[in-house]
Design a protein that fits this description.
Blueprint lengths: L13 E3 L5 E3 L4 E2 L6 H10 L13 E7 L5 H13 L5 E8 L5 H8 L6 H10 L6 E7 L3 E7 L2 H6 L5 E6 L13 H10 E9 L4 H9 L3 E6 L6 E6 L14 E3 L3 H12 L5 E3 L16 E2 L9 H20 L13 E4 L3 H14 L7 E3 L1 H8 L7 E4 L3 E2 L2 H9 L4 E2 L6 E5 L2 E6 L2 E6 L2 E3 L5 H4 L7 E12 L6 E4 L1 E3 L3 E2 L5 E6 L17 H14 L13 E8 L5 E6 L2 E5 L5 H17 L7 H6 L10
Parallel strand pairs: 4-5, 4-8, 5-7, 8-9, 12-13, 12-23, 13-19, 15-25, 23-31
Antiparallel strand pairs: 1-2, 2-3, 6-7, 9-11, 10-11, 14-18, 15-17, 16-17, 20-21, 21-22, 24-28, 24-29, 25-26, 26-28, 27-28, 30-31
Helix pairs in contact: 1-2, 3-4, 8-15, 9-15
Length: 612
């Protein structure tokens, strides 16, 4: 059986001039003017949309671009933004690219302008891999770069944003017609905010007529260098400004609630976190050795897309937390997904071909190489995920758990209200009031949103700790075995788990470990890892409840009347939460959504309304 690759993404082929200007061999066109590409970016694009006046009075400005190329327009904009922005202002720069360049090619192109050295270094260090999809990168200066890798018409059709200014900078229309197609132009009009401006290097008649037909007022102005004319265009109207400051209350103090608080703060929105009860246990977020590993699938739909996009965002997010002498990742970094039988090995081959990820992200290993890395016999090989692995929980706690003050109730809380005004109370009275309530309470979420109960289940998961002398990476085999860390009494231990017990009866509060769950973990280790034995340690097991959903997709989004939710992350909380918190924060703050529209719809909380 053959499986089609998930999405199209072109491979750039470059030719470099003696002056260091790249040319696309495929499109037979240069990326920028050989006279001075940076000056061209400033004159044609930045000045074309009004320069720093574009953002001078706005708390949040959105610029979008067709054709990221070398990132030169972005760097020119970032440099101007850095020099002129006011405290509290935010900029989102969205750029479409179907043929993403490698980081080393960007550095080579930028080297011509030493003044861009620091910005170029920060950009290229954070550049995502060449994988189709939406890639959000949070940079310094309250700046988010949202790269949309893929066919321009398709990815713009999946975007929700209100764009204040456009840079149209694809290769010349005669050489790259797809980037100037009617479909792309229609999406540009849909995404444009009232009063939006647009600039491009071309003065082609077809482009002028297309923009005019869509309601833009088009003007020809002097071009750059030897180019006589270029286009600027404007829409009528004035972009609406926010009239009231949001003050969300997040009900839930686990990883989803904490990252949502952080994501909102990045957008200039200060939220408060209220714990759902006096118990300081945060459910699955208490996991002492959390794992971040991908799930490659053959699913072309929402579930497969969710796995890809959340994993890639999680890698960028946790890498950004690394600071000081301690790494956020447990050494050795990486994970091996073990093939347990011949059918598994064949499936892994298909998954690798379908995902079409670069080898730096996922690589199929033959049995001998996989066995050498794992320190054990692996007769069917494995997939190596070099960037995944286990998180250092203490570094994570220091980075995240100190960011938000928690309101701790004296008793389990209740929520009262309707029509956009909500009150959170405990036995002593009012804790918080808000017109924006977010439910992020993990397995307790359905206590506050009973309509979700028919589509959810509370599932018990337990992790046991065994001795692991081998210094290898994380192993996944249906269950997982973490890298080795120092345990109690000088033992070298690893986390083994986690069980998935749907039959256990839910009890709120402290979750006791069960001997039957330990037996299950040990048995699965032996069955799935070719007779591997387990030596118990003095470190006690850890157990918690998690909320799962009928279709294995989380619930994230708005529920109307000022209520939002992020829950149902199951056992994938540390992998899912960075992207899903970004998505929900953008929804609440009316910022560009860093997730494709089809995935937003697939995880919407109203999708099981027919079961109520």
């Amino acid at each position: 059986m053959t499986d089609q690759q998930r999405d199209w993404l072109g491979r750039p082929y470059l030719d470099w001039s003696p002056e260091g200007v790249p040319r696309s061999i495929s499109h037979d066109d240069i990326y920028y003017s050989p006279e001075d590409g940076l000056a061209e970016s400033r004159h044609v694009f930045l000045e074309g949309v009004g320069g720093h006046a574009l953002w001078s009075t706005s708390p949040h400005t959105v610029i979008a671009e067709t054709g990221f190329g070398t990132g030169l327009n972005f760097l020119a904009t970032w440099q101007a933004w850095q020099a002129t922005r006011k405290p509290g202002q935010h900029l989102t720069f969205i750029s479409v690219e179907g043929y993403p360049l490698a980081a080393e090619d960007l550095r080579r192109a930028h080297a011509v302008w030493p003044e861009l050295e620091n910005l170029s270094a920060e950009l290229t260090a954070a550049l995502p891999p060449a994988v189709p999809g939406f890639h959000a990168i949070d940079l310094s200066d309250n700046l988010r770069l949202l790269l949309l890798y893929g066919d321009a018409g398709e990815v713009l059709g999946q975007l929700d944003a209100q764009v204040n200014a456009w840079y149209l900078d694809g290769f010349a229309p005669a050489r790259n017609a797809d980037l100037w197609s009617d479909k792309v132009m229609t999406e540009i009009r849909r995404l444009s905010a009232p009063g939006a401006t647009l600039a491009t290097f071309t003065a082609a008649g077809a482009v002028r007529r297309a923009l005019s037909a869509l309601g833009f007022e088009v003007t020809k102005t002097p071009g750059f260098g030897r180019k006589r004319e270029r286009i600027i265009a404007n829409l009528s109207g004035t972009a609406p400004q926010s009239t009231s400051a949001l003050s969300p209350v997040i009900l839930g103090n686990g990883i989803a609630g904490r990252l949502l608080h952080r994501a909102l703060l990045h957008l200039g929105v200060e939220a408060r976190i209220v714990a759902p009860g006096p118990d300081r246990n945060t459910g699955g977020s208490e996991n002492p050795l959390p794992m971040v590993t991908p799930r490659l699938t053959l699913d072309p739909g929402a579930y497969g897309l969710l796995q890809d996009q959340t994993y890639l965002r999680a890698l960028r997010f946790y890498d950004s937390l690394a600071s000081g002498s301690e790494d956020i990742w447990i050494a050795p970094r990486g994970a091996l997904a073990i093939a347990r039988e011949a059918e598994d090995a064949e499936r892994q081959k298909r998954q690798i071909a379908f995902a079409n990820w670069p080898d730096t992200l996922a690589r199929l290993l033959p049995p001998d190489e996989a066995g050498n890395i794992a320190g054990r016999n692996l007769p069917y090989g494995a997939i190596s995920f070099a960037s995944g692995g286990g998180l250092n929980k203490q570094v994570l706690l220091d980075a995240l758990w100190s960011e938000a003050d928690i309101i701790w109730p004296a008793s389990p809380v209740t929520v009262e209200g309707d029509a956009g005004h909500w009150s959170v109370r405990d036995s002593n009275g009012l804790l918080a009031e808000t017109d924006c309530l977010v439910i992020a309470a993990g397995p307790l979420s359905t206590d506050f949103v009973p309509m979700l109960r028919p589509a959810t289940a509370r599932v018990l998961g337990q992790v046991d700790f065994i001795r692991r002398e081998n210094p290898g990476p994380a192993l996944t085999f249906g269950s997982y075995l973490s890298p080795a860390v120092a345990g109690q009494n000088g033992e070298t231990i690893a986390a083994l788990g986690a069980t998935f017990n749907r039959a256990a009866e839910f009890q709120p509060g402290e979750t006791p470990s069960l001997a039957s769950e330990t037996d299950m973990n040990f048995r699965l280790l032996s069955e799935r890892l070719f007779g591997q034995g387990a030596k118990a340690t003095t470190t006690p097991p850890w157990a918690a409840w998690r909320l799962t959903t009928r279709d294995r997709l989380p619930f994230v989004g708005g529920m109307g009347k000022g209520r939002f939710i992020i829950t149902g992350l199951g056992s994938r909380g540390f992998t899912y939460a960075p992207l899903l918190a970004d998505m929900l924060a953008a929804t609440i703050a009316n910022a560009p959504i860093p997730v494709r529209r089809d995935l937003v719809n697939a995880i919407a909380p109203n999708r099981f309304a027919h079961l109520v």
